[in-house]
Every structure is written in C-alpha cells, then in structure tokens.
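Researcher: Before we compare anything, I want clean individual predictions. No alignment, no superposition, just each chain on its own. First chain goes here; please echo the sequence and then give the structure tokens.
Model: Echoing the first chain and its structure:
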Amino acid sequence: MFYLLPSYCQVKKTPGADYNVIEELDVKVEMRDGVRLSTNVYRPDVPGRFPVLLTRSPYGNGGKGNRFAHYFVKRGYAVVTQDTRGRYESEGVFDALQSESLDGYDIQQWVGKQPWCNGKIGTYGGSYVGFTQWISAPLQSPYVVTMIPSITFTDFHDEVYQNGAFRLELWGLWSFEMTTPFNCLLDSVVKQPNDFLMTLPLIDQDKKLGWKIPFLRDWLLHQEHDRYWDRTCIGDGYSKISTSICNIGGWYDIFLNATIANYIKMTNPSIAPEIQKKQKIIIGPWVHEAGKRKVGELDFGESAELNSTELMTRWFDNQLKGVDNGVLEEPPVKIFVMGENKWRYENEWPLARTKYQKYYFHSGGNANTLSGGGSMDTVQSNDQKADKYIYDPENPVPTIGSMGPYDQRSVETRSDVLIYDTNPLREDVEVTGLVNAVIYASSSAKNTDFTAKLVDVYPDGKAIRICEGIIRADHRNPSSPPSNIEPGKIYEYKIDLWATSNVFKKDHKIRVEISSSNFPRFDRNLNTGNYFATDTTFIKAEQIIYHNAEYPSAIVLPIIRK
C-alpha cells in the first residue's frame, strides 16, 4: 500500500541538503481507462512536501538504487519514474507514442495530488522520453512548472517521413528492437541490417523477422499527415503551453529539426511575452547523446562536453525552488560553433544578422565523382551542359557512418554522386542557420528522390559531412497533395538540409553532393510511381541536374560575418 505523508509539513533545507532516500517501487498508478502503469517513487526520508521531477519512459523506469533519482532526492526533490503503457511492468498494449498524451497528463495529476508533492513538477528526459513531456504539455496540468526535453520531437509524422521519404534505418530498426520477443536476440535475426532493410515490400519486413509489428505497418500505410498521426502531434497546441522549457539538441542529432522548431514555436510572437522569456535552447556538436566531445570521426575538444546533471540541477533549482542563480537572465540561445569549437550565446534563432548566400553549381556536364569537373561559387551559372547520372535502386548510395561527422570520400567515387566544390577558401566562412539546396532536375521516372549533402573538405582531402537532406519528387510541393512527375520535365526541388553551425576554415573547401539515394538512412525510391511500402518492382532512372541562367541550381548558406 502506498504510504501517505502528512500534508502540512514544508521542507526548509537548502538545495544542497543531503537526505536519505525512500524507494517505493512498482506502484501501480491507474490511468483513466483503468490500465495501471508501473511507477517508481523516490523521495526524501522525512515528512514534508517537495518539488517533483517526473519522467516517463518505454526503456525501463530505473528500478532499485536509481543513481539519477538518488542524486536529486538527496538534494531535496522527489523523483517519479514511470514505465509507459505496455512496457516492462506496466499494463496495456504498447502502441508506440499513441497513448502518451493522456497517460502523461494522468500521472502528472496523480503526482501533483500526493502529500509529498509541493505542487510543482519538472519533467525531464530525451528522445521518446522528451516526446512524453511535450505531448502532454498542451493539456495544461496545473502542477507542471518546467520541462527539460532533449534530443526530441513533437510531430511524429515529420520524424517518420522526411519530405516524403521514410526514415528506414531509424524507425525500422527501432521498431524491431522495441518488439523483439523475450529471449530472442535481434542480432541473430538481423545479421546483415542493410540486406534486411532492402526487403520488398517494405510493409512485410516484420514477416521476415518472424513477429508482427502492427504500429510499423500503420506508419507505412499512412505516408501523409492524416488523422492517424493526430495523437502524436502537438499541432496548434503550443499556445496552450505555459511552462518554462530548456531544450537540448545536437547538430548531428536525428531530431535536430524538431528541437529547433519547438523553440521557434514557443518564442513565436503569438506566444505570451512572459512565456517567451522562459524558453531556452542549447545545441552542441552531438548526435543522439548530448554531452560528448568525440563525435563520429571528430574530437570537438573538452569544451564540447556537457554535464547534463549539473545543467538540470541549476535549472530545476531556479524554476522549482526559486534559487537565484541567474539561469533565466542568460541569453536564450546557446550554440556550439564547430570548426572554431567554441560555445556562443545568441539572442534569437535564426540569427538576425544572417546573410543568405547562394553558391551556384557549375560544370561542363562532368560533375560525377570526386575527380569530376564540378565546382560552385557565388556567380550565377550559365553552363550549357547539364550533369547526368543513373540512379539504380538495386545499388543505392550507402549511408556512411551514423548521423555524425564522417568522411564521405568512399561514396564520392561513385558515378551516381555529383560533386560541386568551391575553391580553397581564402578566409574562414561561418555557416550558422538553416541550410537549403534549390536544384532544377528532370528524371526518366514517374517518381524518384533527390538528395543533397553539405561537406567540409579539409586540406588533406578528408570530406566531413555537415548536414544533409532529401526530397521525394511526388512531395516537391508541400502545399499540394503528392503527385507523380512527368518523365523528362524539369522541376524545381527545394531540399531542406536542416541546420548547422560550422566554420569552414581557411584553405578548406565547401562541397555539395547531389544524388538520389542515402540508404539505409532513407528507404529506396523504386522509381515506379507506385506506393512505396507495397511495391516490389523497381527500375533505373536517368537523372539530369541543370545549372544555367534559366535553371540556377544552388545551395543557400546562412553566412555569419565577423
């Protein structure tokens, strides 16, 4: 039975007070539909009311001796961790992300009414656990005061599909891992992940595994942002959120775009000024684990390290205990500028002083491969010859490394990759902000993909990925329903490469790669114009990239002048 403390005692100890910890594990908290979710409560061993830190996770609620929970309890907080529906000791069926809004609100209400809670809740966690914070925030629990969501998202459809392309490696493998039967090792089933991910049709991948994944099939059957996704999207709910929020993201994180979008939406002029003032964003040079100095093939130095526990302590002490430590007086945007490898505060995002510069593509029709004749500069092209390549879905351009900074030269030797370089830079060039490529292209196919990648080329030839993007041809117009293209017709494609902050150093070169695949990061476009998830046939496509006065293909870089 859950032990209830007297409601009249108030805690007077300082933020650094050292309490002993009482653990109450696997408390079954009932949701509105009667399903009971396994909840662990960690609290100081004295009567009284405390601010509460709450997290909800599908990866396990921490169990006995939870070091993170103990750290905060000893400093005068109660900590509540919960297994999400259908995970570990919680009842119900795990239907990824679908129930997190109402379940999140219900546990917030339960916590706020407990006699050991002083009426103030702060939420924390990253990735899926960050989503569980955001998605319940518009329901306006009166107890939730502040949030620290990191490396996370709020519109799940836009994470599953990037401009029409399915993020196969991320969500395919995640779905497999989250549904692997007990005592079954996923590695014994998926021995060659890339080969496995090439299974056709995509919708039958779970058959190859040997167990059903209903939610993965649902995702593959709902390519468009229809009502299926409503429960996994905040939509216009940002105006209902009144908490302070400290967002944490990484330039190479799989959810970078969403992290930035969330900050922008919470600082939009439509948001009340007093709420806008309580929004922060921190972006480091990280992938999907904030705080490391070594990422991919680069070491960003000691300054890139982040002690997330210290950050959370400072934030929660200020927001939940009223400690005057100046955290809200600091500028709202803190970014790590790669290349210089230094942190910098800014007052807004995007930066008001940004100058958007187009770098136009040039070649004599021979930009294929690293040894081709492609170049780019700020002078608009008037080339007579376009660049051509054959995209073969049976032999897609492979993804190199994870989302981090990896040397791309091994794919730059392929004839289906176009390379456009600047001359060696005469001075440092800082690129900080949103990056977009605008290309004019035709295809022999009814539907196909185009990809773009921004690369930092070192004097020794090393070609480090900075950011990248993709667009599916039938999604070329985001304001209209998807439609196939007419073979041979020239279309404009705007490719969102997300964002970065990188100084291209003197004597480096700025490079852009253009191709039609990045597998298995994205599913292969089979070029047939049929529905991607059920198609089993594929054809090769001849792709033509134009760069002349009428069709000035270019990349648009956000330049920050010193």
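Researcher: Okay. Second chain, same rules.
Model: Second chain and its structure:
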Amino acid sequence: MALTETYLRWRYRLVPDHLAGEILSKRWIDNTIPLFILLLVVAAFSTAMPEFFNAASVGDLSRQWGEFALLVLALMIVMLAGGIDLSVGSTFALGNIVALALISVAGWPMWAVVLGTLACGAAVGLVNGVLVGYLRLRAFLTTLVTLIIVRAIVDMLLLKYSVAIAGGFIDSDAWYYPGEGYLLGMPFSVVVAGVLAIVIHLVFSRSRAGWHVLAVGGSRRSAHNVGIPVKRVICSTYVISGIMAALAGLLFASRLGGAGADTGIGLEVTALTAAVLGGNSLGGGRGSAAKAIIGSVTVMIMVNGLVRIGVSAGANSLLLGLVLLAAVAIDVRWLKNRHKLLSKVYVSPTFMDLPAAPETDEGSIYAVNDKLHPVEKIGLDAIDGPEDVILDEDDNIYAGNRTGDIIRFFAPDYTRQEVYAHTGGRPLGMAFDRAGNLLVCIGGMGLYRITKAREVERLTDETNRSWLSVIDDSRLRLADDLDIAPDGRVFFSEATVRYEMHEWPVDCLESRGNGRIICYDPNKGKTHTVLKNLVFPNGICMSHDGQSFFFAETWGCRVSRYYFDGPKAGTVEVVIPDLPGYPDNINRASDGTYWLAIVGMRTPSLDLAMRMPGFRRRMARRIAPDEWLYANINTGCVVRFDETGRVLETLWDKGGENHPMITSMREHKGHLYIGGINNNRIGRLKLDWADPDWTGSQSYWRRS
C-alpha cells in the first residue's frame, strides 16, 4: 500500500493532468484545427511541387491573397453577427468594373476613383443591411437575390464600357501602385489586408462596437433585451462587408487592368469555404480575424496548387465543396461537443494525503461542547450569508451579504441597519486600515477599498503572471481574505486560480494547490504574488510581531505562518498540521492568541477519497455534479490557538441551532462576533475572560 501511495504521490506531482483542461478552455484552441489543416496543405503542396513556394511564386500568390483575404474578412464580419453575405463575389466584380470605368472612361483622379468604388460597395451593403437588419428578411435568400441583381448590373456595365476600358490607356502611377507596388517590402494589397485584419481584431476584442456584434451573433433576442441596437448593428456589418469587397475589386482592377464576364464568379463560395475552414462559426458569435486569415491562406494555396497541378475547374470546385462540407461538419460537431469534452477533463484531481484527523470525543482538546449555545442572534433573517464580520471603533457591525451589499448594524442594540455600500460582487474578507477605510476582498473582482465617505474604489484586480503557467493567473478570480501589515501593505489570499466564485467547492475535489497569497503595496501601487501552490488559502491574520502572518489552507486542514520581514523573511512554518476540520478565517484575540473558524468537519470517506485521485476523476466524469463527494461545510466550531500553534480551546454549538455554520469570528470589547457564509444571522457570544476594552483596530493601530 505504501509503495502504491508513493507512486501516486509522484505520478500526480510530476504529470500536469490539468493542462489538457486548461488548453481546451482557451479561446485560441479553436485555431488549432485550422492551423493544423494549413500546415498539412503547405506540407502536401511543398512535397508535390518543390518549386511551389519559391520567391517568385510566393510573390505572385501573395498579391492574389491580399485581395482574397479582404473578401474573407468581409464575410467573417457578417458571419459574426449571425448573418451571411453571398453577394461578396458580385460586389467584388462591381468594384472592379466601376474602378476601371471611373479611371479610364470618366478620367477621375485616383482619390475620387477610390471613394466612388467604395461608395458603390457601401450601397450594395446598405441594401443588404436594410433588407436583413431592418426588414428582417432571411440573410441567405436576400443576399442570393442581391448576388443575382449586382451580377446583372456588372454585365450591363461590361456591355457598355468594356470596349472603352480595353482600348483606353491609364497614365497614372497612382493607379498602378495598389496592384503592383510594394510597401515595407511587401505587396501593397498584403499590407492593406494585414492592417485591416489587425484593426478588425482590435475592434472585436477591445471595443464596444465589436462586443455588440458578437453579442448580436450569439443571441439577437438577448442582445435586444440588454439595449443593443440589433438592427443597426446588423446593417452596419453588411455595409462594411460591401466596402471591403469593393476594395478587393479595386485592388484586382489595379493589378490586372481588365474586366471580364467571369470576374468574381464563384468567389463567394470560395470565400465562405475559407471563412468556415478557418473556424468562424456559421451560427454567429464565434470567430476572429486570425481565423479568417488562416482560412484564406489555406484556400488560396489549395486553389492555386490544384490549378498548377492541372486539376480541371470542375474538379477544383468539387474539392472546394467537399472541403466546405467537411469544415461545416467539424464546426458543428466541435461546437456541440467541446464543452462536453471540457467538462470531462477540466476537473483534475491530484493525490492528497492528510494527517489523521484528531478525535472530537471527550478528553480531546477538540471535544464537542455547547459553549456556543448562549450565542445571541443579531440580524436574524435580515442578512443573507455574512461570510465575514468586523466592527469599527463605534461598535457598529459590518457584514457582506449575498447580493453584494455591505450592511452596517448600528450599536448598541443592532436592531437598526443600513446598506453601507454596494460592491457589485460578493464581499468576503474585510479589514480596517489605519485611516479607517474598509478594505474588502470581493469574489470575482479583487481587492477594493470603501472610504469613510462610502466611495467604492478598486485597489487591484490583477497580479504578476507566472511565466510558465498555461492559466492566465494575472487576473484575480477568488480573493477571499486579507490583513494589513504595520507598513500598510495588504496581504490577501486568493483561494483558487482555476474556479470562479460559484464553483469553489469543486476546488476541493482537485486539492491541487490552485491558491496563492498576494501582496498589494499602496505606497508603490503594485501587486505581486508572495506564495503559490496553496490548497485553498482562506484566512489571513497578521501576527502580533508585525513581521509575519498566519494563513489557513482549507482543504489542507492546516494553519501555517509566513514571515515577510525580519530574520526569517521568506520562510513558511506549519503551526497546526492536523485540524479535525476545514479552517477558514483567522483573527486576533485580546490575550495575544488567535481565533480560527472551522467551516466544516472532515469525514473518513472524503479523507480516503483524497488519496484516490483516480476515483475522484471517474466520479467527476461519470455522475452529475450535484452528486459528487464534497467537503462537509454544514457544521463547525471556533478554535483558539497561540503563537506556537497550540490549541487552547474550542467552541461548539452542539445542537447547531444558534449558529449552525461558521466562516469567521471577531473579538471586540469582550464579545465574539461570528459570521457564516450560509447563515441568516450574526452571532454574539460574551467572553467572560476577555478584555472588555480591547478592539481589533486598537490592536493593529495602537489607538487609545
């Protein structure tokens, strides 16, 4: 058995099973399959035709790609909003003939030709946008009709101007530059496509307009309900698509200088194949400029490679159709099954061997008693989930609730209350600084300060990112408790970097060490990680020496001490290695000792399961989450310990009636105030031995 456990310990320490889930959860994972296909296509044509990627071939191919990429980007924008634009090929042809007619027949200057051509494309897009966006016609049928109409217009223009265009001579270097010139050593069309791709990426990832398009593509009804102008957003995507398609036609006209009846025919199918092959969803709401670029490069290589091999036009179209069919099938299956796969591999338990749990029978320091039976009930049914409680110098009580408010109960009888501040998140640990401001850890948001004027200010919501971490651990997910050093530095715990506020019990199932302790320095305005790989750190208390603090690791069932200053700076000491339950908040006591909340008691079944990561993995994959084996957080107690970690006494509510669940406690002027994240009350217990004048603020800041 010992050999097996040794193997499991090292196997789960050395093999990072959680990486599969982390990679699948990344947005960029959607690019993996398109990128793999691109590399496969490049390898195939490089092998079949070694000269295919020589300098001359790549130069000629890149000019064609620049024009084609604009069409794919145009189609991608419409697809992100949940639509489709089958008229891009016809608009491309219209841009081509209009540009040639304006420059060679009408004799317009180059700047006017550009504006006129783009205006024609915008007009086609506006027609599509009004019909699809404002009149709510079906995008597929509407743009199919537009394709036919615009193609007819192109044919009529060809009949009228083709001879004049063919016989004319364009004496303008500015006209030939877009099609034949270079910028920064690259063909002009490639630079244009690259710049527009970057702009589109920034718009969709950093701007409100881009988020509106993604929201509309994800769910038009939901987008409308939150106030997004859905019709206008849809219309604008078609206008932009028309402009970009016309721009591609202009570049094509500048490069070849001619117009034919077959210009742009079938281009919409090729562009659609590229967009979908790159990973842009036909269902809307999912896609990117990078996906469009990858898809356009892949299809451009395929089309040109097949032509050079000698494949007939019909076979070429057949192959593209098959590729489009395969891309759609992959997109649908991936979208349908990605989250199923992620749910099976994301939860990644590891080996966790806890020390034997101390007994709670008579004769043990942890023996169950009824010392909490006299607890008074403050705010019964007037507060929901006071995870932490704290008192000011005027004896008023502050506690966060489930709806994001911090409630203040007024002394002396605590029957009157008010909303002290609304945080917008879940208030957890709290502490008063030297100036009397209330610092709060808010789950999912970070570290905040509520000034004495009751203004809510963000102090930090990020820290330094680990260099070798797949997880983006720069963002704070679950900051849960804090304390303040004498020099003003704030040390706070983040319970887990893998799970959000509503998922925190799942971290117990992993017990991987996803937590950390972070320091925010208000003097420098900087945040950095102090300790990593902690097992749900949840509870920090500055020691009386001012050079260290105690912290609890909930699933590790232990309390440790970290020295951040002095001769032992940087060292960690475990002071209580074997608690009978799951520790939570820690706070000072008036006699120089410390209070510790036990949020729930250990069970033999879960302790055994912690040494069986394979069992927990199978449990997470095969049964519903509400049937998983979780830690018991329904009953607990309050523990008092000294500087060395020696437990001095425990306080229980044997019947679980007055204070059934405990996550925090504060001593204040001879009383102990108790909070619980699942409770509907704040408890108060008179301590006969305690200093009736002692307060936490006085202990920290030496106020008289």
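Researcher: What stands out in the second chain?
Model: The chain is about 45% helix and 20% strand. Additionally, The mean pLDDT is 89.
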